[in-house]
Amino acid sequence: MTEKIKSSAQKEWALEHYKGIENLFMPSFSPDFETLDEEGIRHDVRNSIRNKFFSMLITPIGMRSDEENRRFAKIICEEAGDKILKGMMVTQKDLAADLEIMSYAKEIGATHLFMSPAPSLRKAKTEEEVYQVYLERITATELPVVLYGSFSTLSKSIVPVRIFDRLADLPNVVAIKLTQPMNMAAAFYVCEKLSDRLLVGPVNLDFVPVLAKHYPVQWSGQWNVEAVQTPEKPYAYDLLKALNEKRIEDAMEIYKSLEPALSAFFELQAPLILNGGHPWSHMKYFQWCGGGNGGLLRDTHAPVEQVPILDEAARKLIKETYLKVGITPVDAPDEEFMVGKAAYARGARAKEMSETPAYK
Length: 360
Prior knowledge:
α3 (66-80) packs parallel to α4, α6 (127-138) packs parallel to α7 (161-167) and α10 (235-244) packs across α11 (248-274). By secondary structure, the chain is an alpha/beta fold. The protein is built from 15 helices and eight strands. α2 links the parallel β1 and β2 (55-58).
């Protein structure tokens, strides 16, 4: 089953190193939202390492310029060094911008690329045009590439399997992320078509034990894993480790421990993804509860149907869910979350904030 996965240096690298849990790494800003909070960002890199994640996907939500996006990524790569892998998103406005960020990713030491050129895909009118959007980017780099099904004007399917089946033969295409709302039948079909050449990573941890029994499924990630684990209770990490070591009974005991948190997160996020959104403030709150920096993100100006408000009831539910699975959330005032742990330690307070996006 793994012979074709080993058919190139990049695929062999992925088989060895792309294993375990990868998180979604979001930025931290100053309380006035004018600048990046470098101290907060570096704190979150260290917390990701404490969580035993094998990798972080750098997620430039709220960036105001290409320069700021590059600085954000550089801070992460500098702090991470060789302790953890660093993935860079390829989702800029056009081909030229995508190629620039891909080149910069290699320059600063990013280890792989998350290929989701949504702005260009939305303009594609035929299957061949979609294929070419991917191809001209993937063949411009030697960095390993992770695929992700993006919606286009061509098809409303979450994963364009026929297109990815062609891309999977490229030497540096190493993995594919299966998005959270995907059902088991679709996940099974993707595995049947692609897992002989790509490492399949389901977001849904409840799919992983079943799929890993039949296919080379060794990772999950690029989602808010902190919703189901902390450094003290690394449930998701332990689950993947047990499955990779074929300890099925242990894996199922771990799954039972995290299941209430996993179900709660699915209920929160899956409907939003189908509507083109994410619960960004909730996601930052999850990370803060587990020792991360926290801090509100800049306003995305998205409707609440896509980016819901993190209100007192939502914060209470998150903490109660943690307690159900044996996780003790951070003992600190929510004001620390609002400005970020690093800024709070420097003396910043909520009264200094110019606004409180998606928070009440």
